[in-house]
Write a structure and sequence with these properties.
Shape: globular
CATH class of the largest domain: Alpha Beta
Radius of gyration: 21 Å
Strand content: 25-35%
Number of domains: 2
Strand order of the largest sheet: 10-12-11-13-14-19-18-17-15-16
Helix content: 25-40%
Structural class: alpha/beta
CATH architecture of the largest domain: 3-Layer(aba) Sandwich
Largest sheet: 10 strands, mixed
CATH superfamily of the largest domain: Class I glutamine amidotransferase (GATase) domain
């Protein structure tokens, strides 16, 4: 597509700030969401299809997006989950032989509005300094005042329950039914690569909707319980918190990732809060306090648990901290086989430094089996 034929577009932030650009492809209109940015240099396809990003307008800090196309093997859920996309340079042509098609085709198929030619460096600096906020991207350049009114009424992420928007509506199975271990997974917005990592460790997984009860999960007669990642504010998920409380009361093996990490904290009376910007990228440094080793991790979250409350809780041990801001990045129960991390050990995209956590989950299951024989 020639640059001259592309429509003018812009991103309007909730505080009235505007950054201008051009529309990607032929799609027109407006898209609302909370604006955030991801610092990963690769992995845009996995980011766009990660259910944890539901309701967010993604700003890519990498200067070129779309240059290696799309591969169906790298999709993390059924379709795109972000609300809109903002980039510096959009690549209409791709060069990876293994790609199944272009990013433009993928966006069109998923009816996603995207804009390019935005000064994303200036935009990211502005968001970083002023905090995450709602925004709208649009090609309606003559309708800015009306969009400002609509943006003012758009729901804020703080207090917003979104797991119901991305969770499965019916239970389903993943892996080999003859596997050694059976896992019940509560789907708050689960990524496919989490299921792949469990299946690689000889697990047969039954995935349950976000509003399932403990009795539902128990009906699979699992060896362990998994609480998934997901979007939105963790505090409204009262049902999931009660499920985790029951798992803890029965002292069953449990592993939580991201939103699942926050569920474990809330189940122990540890509060959560909305961060100024959150952590989103594939190069976040984490310190494992148990081993003294550093890890480079993949992260995507806008909420965090209260570290001071976690440190004061006699039943909780902080196992990992984020080295950029010292937030709690991992916790475990001192006397129960339950633990969680705020980041994504399954990666996709990202490094595999933390994949050992899935092995730790299996080790906990084996120890539990030994103790209960």
């Amino acid at each position: 597509m020639k640059y001259e034929t592309r429509k003018k577009a812009f991103i309007l932030l909730a505080d009235g700030t505007i950054f201008y650009g051009k529309a990607v492809g032929n799609k027109e209109g407006s898209a609302f969401g909370e604006v955030c940015f991801n610092t990963g240099m690769t992995g845009y396809e996995e980011i766009f299809t990660d259910p944890s990003y539901h309701g967010q307008i993604m700003v890519a800090t990498s200067a070129h997006i779309g240059n290696y196309g799309i591969s169906h093997e790298e999709i993390e859920s059924e379709g795109i989950k972000i609300s809109g996309l903002v980039v510096r340079n959009f690549s209409y042509h791709y060069s990876r032989p293994a790609a199944d098609g272009s990013l433009e085709e993928f966006l069109d198929k998923n009816n996603l509005l995207a804009i390019s030619d935005v000064d994303t460096r200036a935009l990211v600096i502005y968001i970083r300094e002023n905090g995450a906020m709602n925004a709208v991207i649009s090609t309606e350049v003559d309708n800015i005042q009306e969009l400002k009114k609509q943006l003012a009424d758009f729901p804020k992420m703080d207090g917003l329950e979104l797991a119901s928007k991305v969770s499965t509506t019916e239970p389903y199975f993943y892996g080999n039914e003859n596997a050694k271990y059976k896992i019940s997974a509560l789907d708050l917005g689960i990524k496919k690569n989490i299921l792949r990592r469990l299946a690689e460790r000889d697990c047969y997984v039954k995935v349950f909707p976000y509003n399932s009860s403990f009795s539902d999960l128990k009906s699979f007669n699992p060896d362990g319980y998994f609480i998934s990642n997901g979007p939105g504010d963790p505090q409204p998920l009262k049902g999931a918190i009660e499920v985790v409380k029951t798992i803890l009361n029965k002292e069953l093996p449990m592993f939580g990732i991201c939103l699942g990490h926050q569920m474990l904290a809330l189940a122990n009376g540890i509060s959560t809060y909305k961060m100024h910007n959150g952590h989103r990228g594939i190069n976040h440094p984490v310190m494992n306090l148990l081993t003294g080793k550093g890890e480079i991790t993949s992260q995507n979250h806008g909420f965090a648990i209260n570290r001071e409350e976690a440190e004061a809780n006699p039943d909780i041990e902080i196992t990992h901290i984020h080295l950029n801001d010292n937030t709690a990045a991992g916790i475990r129960m001192k006397n129960k086989p339950a633990f969680s991390v705020q980041y994504h050990p399954e990666a996709s995209p990202g490094p595999h430094d933390a994949s050992y956590l899935f092995d730790q989950f299996i080790d906990n299951i084996e120890k539990y089996k030994t103790q209960t024989v």
